[in-house]
Design a protein that fits this description.
With 167 residues, the protein is mainly alpha-helical. The chain has helices spanning 3-151, 156-166.
Length: 167
């Protein structure tokens, strides 16, 4: 390659590079204009944003106070509930204990009454029924003896007839 061709090629490349730099400068100027327009838009919105931030801070502060109040009241309610549950638990334990004592007493009374009833039945049987049975047995013996004497001697033929009936 000779020097003339080399010089032409280099000139073409320098021109292309100059055009590329000019194009970049044009684009940078466009970016500059866009950022200036955006900055002016943001500057117009800045007071509104600041007022929004301020009202948000106030809302957060008020909410924080209300949340603290609600939390305090909830803690008080929980403490009161705990106390009431403890009282109810103590009351139920006392009622259960008293019911157990009363059931034990009722069982003792019932056992005593059953024992006395059994003793009474045994006393009646030994004191009244036993002598009544003895008297009844004695009366049956006297009646049989009396019937025996009233009938007289049994006839041997009747005795054999009676025995033959059973055979």
């Amino acid at each position: 390659m000779d020097q003339q061709t080399l010089l032409i090629v280099m000139t073409v490349f320098v021109i292309v590079a100059a055009l590329a730099l000019a194009w970049q400068a044009f684009l940078l100027f466009g970016i500059y204009k866009s950022s200036r327009a955006m900055q002016s838009g943001v500057e117009r919105l800045l007071p509104k944003i600041e007022s929004l931030v301020e009202s948000s801070k106030q809302a957060v502060d008020e909410s924080r106070k209300q949340i603290l109040d609600v939390t305090g009241k909830a803690a008080e309610i929980l403490d009161l509930t705990r106390k009431q549950v403890a009282r109810i638990d103590a009351l139920l334990e006392d009622a259960t204990e008293r019911a157990k004592v009363q059931l034990d007493r009722a069982e003792l009374v019932l056992d005593d009454a059953m024992g006395r009833a059994q003793d009474t039945v045994a006393a009646v049987q030994s004191g009244l029924l036993k002598p009544l049975r003895e008297i009844q047995g004695l009366a049956a013996g006297v009646r049989t003896a009396f019937l025996f004497f009233l009938r007289g001697r049994p006839n041997p033929e009747e005795a054999t007839a009676d025995e033959e009936m059973f055979i």
